[in-house]
Design goal:
This protein is of the alpha/beta class and 273 residues long. The chain has one domain: 3-Layer(aba) Sandwich (Rossmann fold), CATH 3.40.50.880. Helix content is 23%, strand content 24%. The strands form four sheets. It has a ten-stranded mixed beta sheet, with helices on both faces. A two-stranded parallel sheet has the order 3-5. A two-stranded antiparallel ribbon has the order 7-8. β12, α4 and β13 form a beta-alpha-beta unit. The longest helix is centred in the middle third of the chain and has 13 residues.
């Protein structure tokens, strides 16, 4: 077991980078579905899995209501990148209170068709969506071309993402976040097959390869695919603690913490001085 740690000063913010390389811990049985517990205080790093970098959430996150996670759904949205984080965040309410409220947002609030041909009814449109705490941008078929030229879409992302506490992208959703300026000054990753295109399109953006996901400040970016579960479970761990993340993972028959030999995670910690 080893980890790479780098410390530097950037705009009066202490940045600590830790590269996780530990294997998966043995699953802990959280028991059958029980009355959810109240949301805990910001969790301390777990002694059981010290090599998985953990960052405490902001102290001022609302704890008297669910965090609102709004999922952008566009025509051609990929099923895995949408369903994996949606499923994980939705399951939080069975393991902690108040947990996370999940909903979908499309440009006009109407139907969208996934890349795989499923039709979805979005819950909200751009102009009537409630305030969003966690903006989730799953990959969609045209994230690398026509979506980037959609001025209304980019403007909504800029406005909504600037107010959100977290922005999360899966696979090529990082292209939209970068276009909207939501990744400036942050490290990011995206779908491995499109990382060269990302580097050409956003040459000033710091890109990380060979990782499952990156957490830098308010931004969490994932390579997507089945690894979308890693980023979503990490966010649950970050917000509510490892025990809650383990409970959600158990219900989905997934290991948590993740096995570093699959792909490590890169977590960047920002701590105000």
């Amino acid at each position: 077991m080893s980890e790479l740690v780098f410390v530097s000063r950037l705009s009066s913010v202490l940045v600590v980078l830790a590269l996780a390389t530990a294997g998966a811990a043995a699953a802990q049985d959280p028991g059958s579905v029980q009355e959810p517990r109240a949301a805990p205080n910001p969790p301390a790093p777990s002694a059981a899995t010290p090599a998985l970098p953990r960052v405490p959430p902001p102290d001022d996150l609302p704890r008297d209501r669910p965090l609102r996670a709004g999922f952008l759904v566009l025509d051609g949205v990929y099923g895995t990148e949408l369903v994996a984080p949606y499923d994980v965040l939705h399951h939080t309410v069975f393991h902690t209170r108040p947990g996370v409220e999940v909903f979908t947002v499309s440009p006009d609030g109407g139907k969208v068709r996934t890349f795989e041909g499923l039709e979805l009814d979005a819950r909200y449109a751009f102009d009537d969506a409630p305030p969003i705490d966690i903006l989730v941008v799953p990959s969609a078929e045209h994230n690398l071309d026509s979506d980037l030229g959609n001025e209304a879409l980019i403007a909504w992302l800029q406005k909504t993402g600037a107010k959100a506490r977290y922005v999360v992208s899966l696979c090529d959703g990082a292209f939209l976040l970068a276009k909207a300026g939501l990744l400036e000054g942050r490290l990011a990753t995206t779908f491995p097959g499109d990382q060269d295109a990302f580097a050409r399109m956003f040459p000033k953006q710091e890109l990380r390869r060979n990782v499952s996901f990156v957490h830098d400040g308010h931004a969490i970016t994932s390579v997507g695919g089945a690894r979308s579960y890693d980023a979503a479970l990490y966010l649950v761990d970050h917000l509510f603690g490892e025990e809650v993340a383990r409970g959600v993972a158990k219900g989905l028959v997934l290991p948590w913490p993740p096995a570093a030999e699959v792909l490590p995670a890169l977590v960047i910690r920002y701590r105000q001085e």
